[in-house]
């Protein structure tokens, strides 16, 4: 309750945490729906490339005309960040290059930043964290998103003296989803194109959730914040329900399926034949823990924990997440405690670009959730050795070579501008870890 105590002290002193939101999409809208009901927090500025759309988002989440009129709306992100009244910036664009620019601008002006943009974090997180620490500001993952919620369970387990043998989240997965495109995505969700468009659903964004890219990004973020290992050749996405987490998600020599101990993994809510998994974890997060001794294992059983057959392994999980509606925890933690709710510390995992089909020389890549590539999680050391092209930069680049289906793309396969600010930033980070 320490955070609540600090919030109450803030309110008693008639002070408010002022927030700039960059990106008023789905995550931003869910945050905005809670903001008016959160004492001690004030949305000061909303920055978006489409002001009319941002104002519409406010109306749709229930804001009154007066509330909307009291907000500064702008397209100028530097102006939105460089305001003496602003305490915390929420970066929720989902665009990796923009996210890096926005974060570095926050560091320049001494603002805490909540990085909803996992794409940017995975692309250059170690460098961004180091830069934030030098600027003495908080650079934090977003509470409510699955990486931060998973890290919370990992922290609880380690603080309690348990070894975390696996951690991750659930999702809807079938192997063929890797080849899904913005044209086929709605078939997998059981929607028509017309229904999706009327609901304002972005086909590339939802396709990223489906084709494995977003899962890879989120598992990379967890590994890079916690130090957990990543699989050598991509996530397995095993079908697994809540009751079977402890039995399945452990090393092979302990009767599980993981090639490494202390590894991230995503579980599927569908069996490989399409049947739903019993008690699936599609919307949730988990960690599998190992008892350090026989007494602890006996306590697992005595207190109703779900264990494997040996009783040595158990699982703690949260079956849902509310993304932007939980974001205030990160904002208050950064502003009042000067602590992140998850932060990149390592470069354990990287998400590389894999061809969805045979690609031809001269074709233009269309990035995350598109028609050409999907993002696969592999060890960062392997990515560096391959000179693999990160998924966060695989957009609007032209191919120099023909690429077979299911191949990892490299920097040598694409034309790119060596003077591009974000590419240089990424290459600087790669060189640091390569050396």
Structural notes for this entry:
With 435 residues, this protein is an alpha/beta fold. It folds into three domains: 2-144 and 324-337, NAD(P)-binding Rossmann-like Domain (Rossmann fold); 147-173 and 212-320, no CATH class; 349-434, Antifreeze-like/N-acetylneuraminic acid synthase C-terminal domain (Type Iii Antifreeze Protein Isoform Hplc 12), CATH 3.90.1210. It is 37% helix and 18% strand. It has helices at 2-12, 26-34, 51-60, 65-69, 77-81, 96-108, 118-135, 146-159, 185-189, 193-198, 203-210, 213-226, 245-248, 294-302, 328-337, 380-386, 421-434, and strands spanning 17-22, 41-47, 72-74, 88-91, 112-115, 139-141, 163-171, 263-268, 285-290, 313-318, 349-355, 364-366, 373-379, 395-399, 414-415. The strands form four sheets. It has a six-stranded parallel sheet, sandwiched between helices. A four-stranded mixed sheet has the order 8-7-9-10. Strands 12-14-15 form a three-stranded antiparallel sheet, with no helix packed on it. Helix 7 (118-135) packs parallel to helix 12 and helix 8 packs parallel to helix 12. The longest helix has 18 residues, at 118-135. The mean pLDDT is 96.
Q: Strand order of the main beta sheet, please?
A: 3-2-1-4-5-6
Rg from C-alpha positions? 22 Å
Oligomer: single chain
Individual helix count: 17
Shape: globular
What are the SSEs and their pairings?
Elements: H1 2-12, E1 17-22, H2 26-34, E2 41-47, H3 51-60, H4 65-69, E3 72-74, H5 77-81, E4 88-91, H6 96-108, E5 112-115, H7 118-135, E6 139-141, H8 146-159, E7 163-171, H9 185-189, H10 193-198, H11 203-210, H12 213-226, H13 245-248, E8 263-268, E9 285-290, H14 294-302, E10 313-318, H15 328-337, E11 349-355, E12 364-366, E13 373-379, H16 380-386, E14 395-399, E15 414-415, H17 421-434
Parallel strand pairs: 1-2, 1-4, 2-3, 4-5, 5-6, 7-8
Antiparallel strand pairs: 7-9, 9-10, 11-13, 12-14, 14-15
Helix pairs in contact: 6-7, 7-12, 8-12
């Amino acid at each position: 309750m320490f955070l609540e105590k600090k919030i109450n002290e803030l309110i008693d002193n008639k002070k408010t945490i002022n927030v700039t939101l960059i990106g008023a999409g789905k995550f931003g809208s869910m945050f905005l729906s809670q903001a008016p009901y959160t004492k001690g927090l004030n949305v000061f500025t909303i920055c978006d490339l489409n002001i009319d759309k941002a104002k519409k988002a406010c109306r749709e989440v229930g804001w009154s005309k007066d509330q909307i009129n009291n907000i500064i709306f702008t397209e100028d992100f530097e102006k939105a960040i460089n305001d003496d009244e602003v305490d915390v910036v929420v970066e929720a664009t989902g665009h990796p290059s923009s996210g890096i620019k926005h974060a570095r601008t926050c560091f320049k002006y001494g603002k805490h930043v909540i990085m909803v943009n996992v794409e940017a974090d995975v692309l250059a997180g170690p460098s961004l964290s180091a830069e934030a620490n030098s600027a003495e500001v908080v650079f934090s993952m977003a509470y409510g998103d699955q990486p931060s919620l998973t890290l919370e369970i990992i922290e609880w387990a380690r603080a309690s003296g348990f070894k975390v043998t696996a951690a991750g989240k659930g999702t809807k997965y079938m192997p063929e989803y890797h080849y899904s495109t913005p044209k086929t995505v709605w078939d997998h969700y059981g929607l028509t194109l017309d229904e999706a468009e009327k609901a304002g659903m972005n086909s590339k964004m939802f396709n990223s959730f489906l084709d494995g890219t977003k899962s890879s990004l989120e598992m990379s973020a967890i590994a890079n914040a916690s130090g957990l290992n990543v699989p050598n050749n991509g996530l397995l996405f095993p079908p697994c329900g809540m009751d079977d987490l402890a039995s399945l998600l452990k090393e092979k020599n302990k009767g599980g399926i993981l090639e490494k101990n202390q590894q991230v993994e995503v579980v599927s809510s569908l069996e490989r034949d399409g049947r739903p998994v019993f008690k699936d974890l599609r919307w949730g997060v988990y960690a599998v823990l190992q008892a350090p001794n026989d007494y602890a294992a006996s306590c697992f059983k005595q207190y109703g924990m779900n264990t494997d057959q040996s009783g040595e392994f158990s699982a703690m999980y949260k079956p849902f997440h509310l993304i932007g509606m939980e974001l205030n925890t990160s904002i208050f933690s950064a502003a009042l405690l000067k602590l992140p709710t998850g932060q990149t510390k390592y470069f354990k995992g990287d998400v590389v670009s894999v061809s969805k089909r045979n690609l031809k020389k001269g074709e233009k890549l269309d990035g995350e959730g598109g028609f050409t590539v999907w993002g696969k999680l592999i060890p960062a050391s392997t990515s560096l050795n391959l000179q693999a092209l990160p998924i966060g930069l695989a957009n609007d680049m032209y191919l120099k070579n023909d690429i077979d289906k299911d191949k990892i793309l490299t920097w040598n396969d694409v034309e790119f501008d060596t003077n591009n600010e974000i590419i240089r930033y990424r290459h600087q980070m790669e060189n640091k870890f390569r050396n």
